[in-house]
Design goal:
alpha+beta, six-stranded mixed beta sheet, 12 strands, Deoxyribonuclease I, Chain A, 245 residues
């Protein structure tokens, strides 16, 4: 089963980085390029971050012939002038889904949500969680994610943009229950991901996929092919996993 996590920068592309992504108009051409990038690695489940709205999620899902779920973040920077959120794309049967609070500031009414889904994957049933952590208070957010993950019975994968590198101390509670798929294997793809990172102009690997310690065997990991690495300021990261019998 191939998993892909990908921060798509609101579909604004990998250029014009000095301009906020929400100031770059949506483009059918850029969405089609995102779809081609996703299709290039043939994933079974995709976690997208920085999706404009539910229509944007549905458009990309239609491009790649997958089903989708969408969850917005709360109150988007408190100004309500744009929306953004998370999406999960999947090919198999959906059993259940929901969202949960990762971070919320009641004073300005902004924060981050997480999105989860129970699906029937090609290897069996599993729970998938998608997060996009704020750069502030990473430990608080990891605690919220771990608390939600602890309620899952059965195989669990956690995907997303963590905005911190895998060695960050804030991830210590997560490492007690999950493994970093990139460091669970030694392949040419995993070594490239470690060396290059996933953020344009920054060699930190902040886009990650974690799998429950006893739930999966990791077979491979890597980045989108080079010709598709310009479609966002992040490079999509994939992992091939197999549910343990």
């Amino acid at each position: 089963m191939r998993l892909l996590t990908f921060n798509i920068r609101l579909g604004a592309g990998g250029g014009m980085l000095a301009k906020p992504a929400y100031d770059v108009p949506a483009s059918e051409q850029r969405d089609a390029a995102l779809a081609r990038a996703i299709q290039a690695v043939g994933p079974d489940i995709v976690a997208l971050q920085e999706v404009r709205n539910h229509r944007h999620a549905e458009k990309i899902a239609d491009h790649v012939a997958m089903n989708c779920l969408y969850a917005p973040h709360p109150s988007s920077y408190s100004l309500n002038f744009f929306e953004w959120g998370l999406a999960l794309l999947y090919r198999s049967r959906l059993v259940g889904h929901g969202n949960f609070t990762v971070l919320f500031d009641p004073d300005v009414r902004t924060g981050r949500n997480g999105l989860w889904a129970d699906v029937e994957g090609p290897d069996g049933a599993l729970t998938v969680m998608n997060v996009h952590l704020d750069t502030r208070r990473p430990s608080t957010q990891i605690e919220a994610v771990v608390s939600r993950a602890a309620r899952v019975n059965g195989p669990l994968v956690l995907m997303g943009d963590f905005n911190i590198a895998p060695n960050d101390d804030a991830l210590a509670p997560l490492k007690e229950m999950m493994i970093d798929t990139c460091r669970a294997v030694d392949t040419s793809g995993s070594r490239e991901a470690e060396a290059l990172g996933t953020l344009s102009g920054d060699r930190r690997r902040i886009d990650q996929i974690w799998a429950a310690v006893d739930g999966f065997h990791v077979r491979d990991a890597g980045l989108l092919p080079p010709r598709h690495r310009w479609v966002s300021d992040h490079v999509g990261y994939f992992a091939d996993v197999e549910i343990n019998a």
